[in-house]
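Lecture notes, part 5. Sequence design as translation. It can be helpful to think of inverse folding as translation between two languages: the language of shapes and the language of residues. The source text, in structure tokens, appears below.
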């Protein structure tokens, strides 16, 4: 299969929107951490250990998602550059690697969504049953 210059270009809108979504997730986590920090300063014993572990892991995953997404975009551009230079074979390989990075980014995103849901379940169980779950 021959990869033309327009093939990698098709991923540009998808990757840029994906990176925007990842940035929004990061900003949401940052706000939660800031709120928890101010609550912690008022009452140091009020924060669940499970929430902190969850937030640290989610931050790590979001950073990995963003890295993989940016790497995918970078490799997409590099593939286009090689295709433009008429080195289509290398361009095809690099484009394939960019797709792998995009898949990894999406997989990590799924894991982060699972953790996000688990954090909400902790909050709900605390309100429903008065018990605090740990991860």
């Amino acid at each position: 299969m021959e990869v033309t210059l327009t093939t990698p270009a098709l991923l540009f809108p998808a990757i840029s929107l994906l990176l925007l979504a990842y940035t929004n997730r990061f900003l949401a986590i940052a706000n939660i951490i800031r709120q928890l920090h101010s609550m912690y300063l008022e009452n140091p014993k009020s924060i669940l250990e499970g929430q902190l572990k969850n937030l640290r892991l989610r931050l790590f995953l979001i950073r990995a998602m963003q890295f993989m997404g940016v790497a995918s975009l970078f490799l997409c551009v590099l593939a286009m550059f090689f295709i433009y230079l008429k080195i289509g074979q290398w361009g095809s390989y690099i484009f394939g690697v960019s797709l792998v990075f995009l898949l990894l980014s999406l997989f990590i995103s799924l894991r982060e969504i699972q953790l996000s849901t688990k954090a909400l379940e902790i909050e709900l169980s605390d309100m429903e049953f008065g018990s605090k779950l740990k991860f």
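The translated text above is only one of many valid answers, since several sequences can fold into similar shapes. The chain has four helices and no strands.
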